[in-house]
From TrEMBL:
GO terms for molecular function: acyltransferase activity, transferring groups other than amino-acyl groups. Residues 17-185 form the N-acetyltransferase domain. InterPro entries: Acyl_CoA_acyltransferase, GNAT_dom, N-acetyltransferase. It comes from Actinomadura decatromicini. The keyword Transferase applies. This is GNAT family N-acetyltransferase. The keyword Transferase applies. Keywords: Transferase. Pfam families: Acetyltransf_3 (PF13302). SUPFAM superfamilies: Acyl-CoA N-acyltransferases (Nat). Gene3D superfamilies: 3.40.630.30.
């Protein structure tokens, strides 16, 4: 079955960035920023060695959901869109297939504070709603990852849940977690 991202014409340009599908050749470009301590601290699956990262990166399920963010031909981050089924009662379950998505992102900290992450995530939200026809998007992070939840708020996502010490961090122990979401009907026409 084709991934919904396969139905779009890539690359897609924003005002300053280019979004494109990830490919095996992007291994080194993503390793360059995913191994940095500021990034490594928050990503879901941290790989310590290049060989471990290569093995994980080249898995089909990793590449299929990943988009790369380029600035002037240089990869400065990656985005994730996992299209998912919504929960539904059995009688209407077929109507809930592939209608929502989980968002994720990792941006090279060298490029932080310039609005690139906001621009890239807004573009992915717009693609999700206007081109893929998804009805709901959600994202999660540790409460301590302030840069991530502030980004969610900047792009218009709504905080839906603050959980207490339910999320296990690899070095910090049990931390609070945050969940944000946005419905297609809440997304204004992108200017």
């Amino acid at each position: 079955m084709r991934h919904p991202l396969d139905t779009l014409d890539w690359p897609i340009s924003t005002e300053r960035l280019l979004l494109r599908r990830a490919a095996p050749d992007d291994l080194d470009a993503t390793w360059a920023f995913r191994r940095l301590p500021e990034t490594f601290e928050w990503i879901t699956a941290a790989t310590v060695t290049y060989d471990d990262y290569r093995e994980r990166f080249l898995r089909e399920e990793q590449l299929i959901d990943m988009l790369l963010v380029e600035l002037d031909g240089r990869v400065i981050g990656d985005l994730m869109l996992k299209v998912q089924d919504a929960w539904a009662q059995e009688e209407v379950a077929d109507q809930a297939k592939g209608v929502q998505g989980e968002l994720g992102w990792t941006i090279d900290p060298t490029y932080g504070g310039k609005g690139y992450a906001t621009e890239a995530v807004r573009a992915l939200i717009d693609i999700s709603f206007t081109r893929l026809g998804l009805r709901r998007l959600h994202a999660e992070c540790f409460y301590d990852n302030e840069a991530s939840w502030r980004l969610m708020e900047r792009v218009g996502m709504r905080r839906e849940q603050h959980t207490v010490k339910d999320s296990l961090h690899r070095t910090k122990g049990w931390l609070d977690g945050l969940s944000y979401a946005l419905l297609a009907e809440e997304w204004p026409a992108h200017e």
